Amino acid sequence: MKYKAIFWDHDGTLVDTEGLFLTSCLETAKYFGTQVDRDEFVYDYMKGLNTTRTFFEKYGINAESAPDFYQYRDNLYQSKIRAGVALRPGIKTVLDHLKDTIPMGIVTSSPSWHFDVIMEVTGLLPYFDFVIKGDEVGKNKPHPEGYLKAAAWLALDPKECLVIEDNERGLQAAKAAGCDCIVIPHHMGEGDYDYGAADKVLESAEGLRDFLY
To answer: Which of 8, 56, 89, 101 is least surrounded, with the fewest CB atoms within 10 Å of its CB?
Structure first.
């Protein structure tokens, strides 16, 4: 194997949580009296365009309601993930194969209070040597900070590391850090997503072993 470490994105790559999170956002917007076009919202989210500021500006949500908005959304999302989280296809088989053969870490934009619940529900944490969460970095994806921090954690050059991602903003973060990147797209929304910079695009994690060996 040419790589010395593998860094995994979390939401949408290891676990199929993107739909749960987006549904929580849409239901929260509706609760606060705002109708959001689902397809447009999904596209913006998968492209990394839904920052806090742009979300409130675009959908006309009163910024003063932000704390209540996020509290309502987070509570809703917590209830959904506690009810059950599915793994992406082929993930368990690949992790079983790779465990103890190469250092692996998770680099996620998800904050601790979401991530920890998902790990509790799925039991995936023992497969990984370390985790870098969204509240442990100054800037989240598409900024490369998380992947640069992961490489530094293992004292590796980013060029020696492979990233597994599911969307465009994650791919941008990996390549900006100097890592090779495989994209396993999460087909939640249709649109002109650009994976041209990826070193490989796979239909599922089941194709990962053929790429590595």
So the answer is: 101
